[in-house]
Design goal:
By secondary structure, the protein is α+β, with helices and mostly antiparallel strands. 30% of the residues lie in helices and 19% in strands. It is elongated and about 60 Å long.
Length: 81
C-alpha cells in the first residue's frame, strides 16, 4: 500500500495530464446564472447519465427539450423514456 506522501506525489505528477480539476478554480470557466444548460453541466461533471428529449416548440417555433439525469448506471432506464 502506498503512503500518503507517495499518493500526493503521484497526484502532483498527474495534474498536468488531467482534464477536469476539482482541487483548484478553473479560471477559463465562465458561469452565467441565466445559462439554461447549467443543470446539464452538473450532471456531466458528476459523471451521471443524461438524456434530452424533444418536448415541442415555443410561440416563435423554436424547439423545446427536456433533460433527464439519472443515477449512475441508469442509462437503460433513461433510454426507455
Amino acid at each position: 500500500m502506498k503512503s500518503l506522501a507517495e499518493l500526493q506525489a503521484l497526484r502532483d505528477q498527474m495534474k498536468d495530464q488531467m482534464g477536469i480539476r476539482h482541487d483548484a478554480k478553473d479560471s477559463t470557466y465562465k458561469c452565467d446564472s441565466d445559462d439554461p444548460y447549467a443543470a446539464s453541466y452538473l450532471a456531466s461533471s458528476a459523471h451521471l447519465p443524461e438524456i434530452s428529449v424533444p418536448a415541442g416548440r415555443d410561440s416563435q417555433n423554436m424547439p423545446i427539450g427536456l433533460s433527464f439525469a439519472g443515477a449512475q448506471d441508469s442509462e437503460r432506464i433513461l433510454l426507455g423514456l
